[in-house]
């Protein structure tokens, strides 16, 4: 078992309420999560997902569940999740997401995450897993920013 720690900050071009709503919308999440093949919102803040991941030479499909806890709209929540990548291994972890106004009508999102991995994934090494995880997070938020910008432009055009 190997632990990987991540944290980051992103500036998002929408209000806290809009960002919070987007981060709870299965359609938005499905579009933004790199490699997401399926995402289904279930009862009680649980999402079931199938995500195709490439970690260095390892390509695998993870099936997993994510649960949202400590909901504090529109200020943030905690995510707890686990995924099974078959022979590639298993991952579980969590993240705390915090949203705050940026003073210019947008939102500053900050997160701290920890993941524990085992199996072939853990053999890849902490540095590769951490850098790949950071790239995935960056791609997620880049896509979310574009989506929020498009929604703002569409709303202003009406």
From TrEMBL:
InterPro entries listed in its UniProt record: CO_DH_gsu, START-like_dom_sf
EC number in record: 1.2.99.2
Pfam families registered for this protein in UniProt: COXG (PF06240)
Keyword Glycoprotein (UniProt): no
Keywords, alphabetical: Oxidoreductase, Plasmid
GO molecular function: oxidoreductase activity
Claim: Oxidoreductase is one of the keywords in the record: yes
Protein name per its UniProtKB record: Carbon monoxide dehydrogenase subunit G protein
UniProt source species: Rhizobium johnstonii (strain DSM 114642 / LMG 32736 / 3841)
């Amino acid at each position: 078992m190997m632990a990987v720690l991540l944290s980051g900050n992103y500036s998002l071009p929408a209000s806290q309420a809009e960002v919070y709503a987007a981060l709870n919308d299965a359609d938005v999440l499905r579009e933004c999560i790199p490699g997401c093949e399926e995402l289904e919102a279930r009862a009680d803040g649980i999402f079931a997902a199938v995500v195709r991941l490439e970690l260095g030479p390892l390509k695998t499909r993870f099936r997993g569940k994510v649960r949202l806890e400590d909901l504090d709209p529109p200020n943030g929540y905690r995510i707890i999740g686990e995924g099974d990548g078959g022979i590639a291994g298993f991952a579980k972890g969590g993240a705390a997401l915090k949203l705050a106004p940026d003073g210019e009508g947008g939102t500053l999102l900050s997160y701290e995450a920890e993941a524990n991995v085992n199996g072939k994934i853990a053999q890849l090494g902490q540095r590769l897993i951490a850098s790949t995880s950071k790239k995935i997070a960056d791609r997620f938020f880049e896509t979310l920013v574009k989506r929020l910008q498009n929604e703002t432009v569409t709303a202003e055009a009406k």
